[in-house]
Write a structure and sequence with these properties.
The complex is a heterodimer. In chain A, 0% of the residues lie in helices and 51% in strands. Chain A is mainly β. In chain B, strands 2, 4, 5, 9, 10 and 11 form a six-stranded mixed beta sheet that branches. Classes of the chains: A mainly beta, B mainly beta.
Chain lengths: 113, 111
């Protein structure tokens, strides 16, 4: 099925551990995004990549790094996980303006203990 | 900072009733206003969107009403069904900027 694939779906980390969330899209979209969703906070943009080779900070970038590996793949790395990073993480992709909508993956539920 | 304020935070509607969710924005440069629907355990999905050159857009039971002078837009779900129970997000953007999302409304349609 065409769409956005995120791995893993669930992860538990200990404080200070690192991990990388993987995202791949097969819709030939130029732009990709990482959001986190927390109760009562909505969707907050962490980082985005408007096109292959570029990345930019969003609203809440602290504690995260990203890599746009190629047009299909956009990864999110937590170098030293903190309990405040417990959240559901969504990757999304879109055409350059997003007017056909963002296509979201099914999310990664991350718990940092 | 660009903001989109969404209300109510949660909403309970009886089956067959009308669900109304409201959003207000500050940035007059916003020129695209989508609504996203999210079911539990899933990512959000585009539901319906409007540009500011029209005051209303309807797709089936879903209607967006847009008031440019008041900088407000709303989602109306007619004949609400239990299958409409989900979280709804309004959003806005301008130019090549990323979407700014509201905080979401949890809708429960009781049978």
């Amino acid at each position: 099925n065409a769409g956005v694939t995120q791995t893993p779906k669930f992860q538990v980390l200990k404080t200070g551990q690192s991990m990388t969330l993987q995202c791949a899209q097969d819709m030939n979209h130029n732009s990709m995004y990482w959001y986190r969703q927390d109760p009562g906070m909505g969707l907050r943009l962490i980082y985005y990549s408007a096109s292959e080779g570029t990345t930019d900070k969003g609203e809440v970038p602290n504690g995260y790094n990203v890599s746009r590996l190629n047009k299909r793949e956009f990864s999110l790395r937590l170098e030293s996980a903190a309990p405040s990073q417990t959240s559901v993480y969504f990757c999304a992709s879109s055409d350059i303006r997003g007017l056909d909508g963002y296509t979201f993956g099914s999310g990664t539920r991350l718990t940092v203990v | 900072q660009q903001q989109v304020k969404q209300s109510p935070q949660s909403l309970i509607v009886q089956k067959g009733g009308i669900s109304i969710i409201n959003c207000a924005y500050e940035n007059t440069a916003f020129d695209y206003f989508p609504w996203y629907q999210q079911f539990p355990g899933k990512g959000p999905a585009l539901l319906i969107a409007i540009r500011p050159d029209v005051s209303e857009k309807k797709e089936g039971r879903f209607t967006i009403s847009f008031n440019k002078s008041a900088k407000q837009f709303s989602l109306h779900i007619m004949d609400s069904q239990p299958g409409d129970s989900a979280t709804y997000f309004c959003a806005a953007t301008s130019g090549y900027s990323t979407l700014t999302f509201g905080k979401g409304t949890m809708l429960l349609v009781s049978p």
